[in-house]
């Protein structure tokens, strides 16, 4: 019989690179005792500076054979080793694996001594063959998921090939019945007898068959449907390998019976009914742990996403822990699962995209929550018509449909990817990553863009795979794009919700991101090393106001929320206070006095509140209440104003005469004037790399196109300089910036229409 022994405790770890033969004899002080899951980038992977440790590190485990149950065969199971890894026993090399997010196994039989020095070398060094290499998140190194030892009989279900679970279950709805095929994968070609048993959610056996076939069809009459958040019903299929009455090996899996499709006009259809997919993307890491998560961390993430009312998650940008997919099955969340084929196509990485995709589909096949396989993300940074890139996508698309004939393929396209790009026609579905209103452009550009795409491509279902903006603990009563305040983030998401959620042809919306996450190369917002677009902070301790904007639209649980709880000190005599609720009417009280009741079909309620002394606010909606406070101050609290670490010049230090241009002007305003355009283009030329005549020009990996210029039009000049300088390593000192500002101050700003 199969046994699974967890090996998470009592490992030795070192960053000191050494020869494999000498590692076990290194001095004790070289080794650090650690328990798994473990990453060596838990701190330096999210503290900024783009200097987190990337290299080969070593893990050592003393495996004592006498502590193991007797068995015919022994296998080591590694559930996550980022990014590449090698396994050694007593100095003998057993296996190599590329890809840091999937499960893989190595047979140890025949290599176990009384005491075995089990060594795993894990390497997250840069290379040009293993994805990801260029992306806006930290590539944490380590053995960051469980490591197990699996013991089995000589006759057993497959363990090694692509990290398979050994069993696949494929339910296909035929009317109210589910024709359900179960297939198992024996590790050898010998004849075996199998017993298949079907269990309902309560654990009662409802059907059983014994056969010599490795495939078996069940018909579940009047199947209880897996119906999303409404009713995520799960069956269990168990397969036993028999020798007479003796059970040699057992595998089992949960599965759900459901049908789904995507209509280019009606969006996602689940079990014959329109089921809007409105949700978030999720990165797995968190403060103090990096990607080395515990089960309770995964459970907390799902609970927060469900509290918000989401119906879908895009699991970016890699295979997530199997336990997390289990939780999504149980919660009824519809999942987009993808591989880290991201940012820039590497011709030398094709084999790795194929192996990572094969492992993703093979290992995650049974999860009913997964409905889409993602081929790539923003892969066209250097153009969408690269023949090798297109061929890579066609290979992946064909591979997925060969491995899984029941699900759809999709991709996340870069915002400036042309609507008629060839690679958009390869998968079943497409989505776009748009940041109009944050990375340039204006918030009101989002909805019309999708109307335009839908009109130009009426047969291609289109969704939104990323949109969002960053917010930290900065505050203002006059939010503007790029200020990193919680108030601008709330405004941005209010606008995006109204535009995206009212267009039902958009097959899915995935807000970027549910949680702040580590991105050690980032240097913006005043707290380096993170991407702060999350609706919840990286430690999961604080739900930003925008979280409640989504809860107001998506959740059925009655609630009311007063925004701006961290924005207490306010200078204005009358201040605007925003309240979110999913109830139709809200009443706001200030120091016990009613400021009136308001109704809002969009769930966003705005009150003008007299600001004098200290004011205790109380919002009431039905039986729900919430409280907050504001305090009148004479001068603005500078603790609320962002000051970027290392910034040469902050936006509030810039002179901006009325009616004149400045570094705080938007690029579109500068470009609308003849003198401003000449000045701006002259500055841009200094940023651009010098290429050969006729070559397409690129900046920070992005091809310079009219669409890109449309996007940057919403940036202020100072923000564009700060961001472009960080990406390109172009330095402009304070005097250079002030001189540019003086020149802009001499130019009349265009009249506002």
Q: Helicity level, as a percent range? A: 10-25%
Named CATH topology of the largest domain: TIM Barrel
Total DSSP E strands = 44
Count of distinct structural domains: 5
Across the major sheet, the strand order is 25-26-27-28-29-30-31-32
Structure report:
By secondary structure, this protein is an alpha+beta fold. The protein folds into 5 domains: 3-152, Jelly Rolls, CATH 2.60.120; 162-255, Immunoglobulins (Immunoglobulin-like, Sandwich), CATH 2.60.40; 260-557, Alpha-Beta Barrel (TIM Barrel); 569-638, Immunoglobulins (Immunoglobulin-like, Sandwich); 647-745, no CATH class. Helix content is 19%, strand content 31%. The protein contains 12 helices and 44 strands. The strands form 12 sheets. It has an 8-stranded parallel β-barrel with strand order 25-26-27-28-29-30-31-32, surrounded by 4 helices. It has a 6-stranded antiparallel sheet with strand order 3-2-4-10-7-8. Strand 22 and strand 23 (267-270) form a beta hairpin. Residues 691-702 have low confidence and may be disordered.
